Amino acid sequence: MTDPLNQQLEHRSDGQRKMFSSSFSVICLLVSSLAIVVLATLLFSIFVTGGTWLNLEFLTASHRENNPEESGIGQAIVGSLVICSICGLVALPIGVGTAIFLEEFQPRRRILRMFHGLIQLNINNLAGVPSIVYGILGLTAFVYMFGAFHSIRINGQPDYEIGATYSYQVKTLGGQYVKFPARAKLQPTIEIQDSRTVTDSSGKRFKLNVFSPIDEESTLAKTRSKSVIRGTQAQLINREGADLYEAATIDGRSFTFPAKPTYSQFAKILEPITVTGPDGKSFELNVLSKSEAIPTDELVKARSVFADSPDPNKRSSASIFRENSFFHMHLPFSKSVLSAGLTLALVILPIVIIASQEAIRGVPQTLREAAFGMGATRWQVVRGAVLPSATPGIMTGAILAMSRAIGEAAPLLAVMGGVLGTTNHLSSLMDRTPVLPVTIFKWAGDENQGFEHLAAAAIIVLLAFLLMMNSVAILIRHRYEKKLA
Amino acid sequence: MSTTPTVMNQSKRSPQSPVQAESTVTLDPPLMDAQTAIAIDSFNAYYGDFQALHDLHLDIPEQQVTAFIGPSGCGKSTLLKWCNRMNDIVPIAYATGTLKVGETNVLERGTDVVDLRRKVGMVFQKANPFPKSIFDNVAYGARLHYKISRPELFDLVELSLKKAALWDEVKDRLKQSALGLSGGQQQRLCIARAIATGPKILLMDEPCSALDPASTSRIEDLIFELRRQFTIVIVTHNMQQAARCSDRTAFFYEGKIIEEGATEDVFTRPKQRQTEDYVTGKFG
User: Which ipTM was obtained for this model?
Assistant: First the structure.
């Protein structure tokens, strides 16, 4: 038998080996510079297209139809920031909590361990789900809430809401608007405006279709027995002690649904009441009878109205007026900032969880042992030893997740629609708002060529945001590494 | 390694030390019938299907230093960790038999491990201070268990650091990070931290294995000083260390206790062949 170690083996060509090695590093260099070239080209073209449009006016103005010169992204920036904050406030506690549960509270029982593994598997899979899927989920879960709350608006008011103040507003003879608080009560008649579930006379429940009069001919043929025309009047009745509204479908089938107190659209003013003026001061409103003449004194005129009268020239009915506080909320959330924020929270939740798990796993086991050894409970270990050490890692992961959220367009298109500009500024959680990615998407596809430049300028702003967030993440990590060293 | 008598010579301390003077008096017979701090009976420990310890019987006396010696993987750390249920962290670990600390069998399901660990402190192989200030490290355990006022906490921290012979070195920098201390100081800090919860028993899992000889000697001095205030159980690979600072020694081999007795007897007059081979350095 030959001994391979003592054999004279033929040498491989040294030059060839080294040539392969060096040419491979050249190929690597070329491939990686290709990526940089593409990125540079992209940035260059964006800056050429949009750079000159970037100015303070652009950053503050809002979208104007067919007017690229005066359009801007003020509302979109605010919208993006608000939605991202909601998203972060929701996703961070839930994500970190889940990560703590998965990492620190591992059960000993086999069945519970399997449950644990199932959650972990789900989270890993969810991280790869396309964001538009979350958009559809958000649409069902938050915008419509699986239809659990009928979205009927009686007299324009949702069934379940908080944070809204209703008052009546009336114009005095002097031309100022004054208001006084509204009281909810059972209205003798209401107008049906939205679909809801109702009960017919035989006790059968069905979903009511609500159509505008113009749809009637074409669409109602098949569903006449389940449809009403928007604005159909329902009468308050009392049956076996329950207050109900009763109305009839187009083919005359009568149905009922429960009544609850609402504000009527208009209020009659028949006697003097205390009102609040435009300056916030309260005073007694002077109510003139319909036969009286208009007072000449300006101050008296500013504080007077005619009592409600059939004469349209002298009518002074007060109409309902809603003021929303910033936390104004109703069920379902409908297409709103809140729905959008919650949907984005779903999108980034798996990312936050996985990043937090990594951070928690990175905490040395010796720290846990030290705390357990002192007699700390599981929660004390998490609170006192694990979380302080894991926080920088968790923060880094959370910020990177947020930077994904701020760039998402698809789920927002699903839950808020393609809003470009709103007349009112964002004032409550139930408002809709334009956001940066959706604005870019709509502008880039706009028929008016001028908006393409704006889209490029908006992309620059979005990239600046992303860059900022990523640098904060890097900064945190850097400081953390220094602290450990 | 040197022969056994030399090991014993090394354990003699300088006659000037007052601790030494005291301990030479108290080391002898009267202590040998001390109360039992930990009573181990028919004890078996498992990791999943693997049995790490087989049918152990051992009484660990109060206010003495008991050393567990033996080659790696013989189960001495496992037994130590069961004494305050630190093995609970390992999901597949379980044990049968009785392991009594005082009157309670700690292996029982209903044992209050939080209270157990307050009474049975632990010092680990690698110094593991929290990334907090020196003061907060020592105060950590006290804050976990007690409602304690700020001045009382200061007193407690000072006392604990003094007992751990660290006070003079750190009294001017209590607010600084504990991670800035040297390895030996960190290990003494961990001892101070364990003392601060007011335990009766201190478990030490190879406390000097990551330290240089100078720091090791300081820790050994410390163990010597603490021996009459606490029941100390120390796991060590270093046989001189066991000989120097323990009153009793248990020799473990392959999950069983081969021999247990007064340290002097185990090292100079071992009854078992395996013990003799091990303490004289023939294997392990």
Answer: 0.82
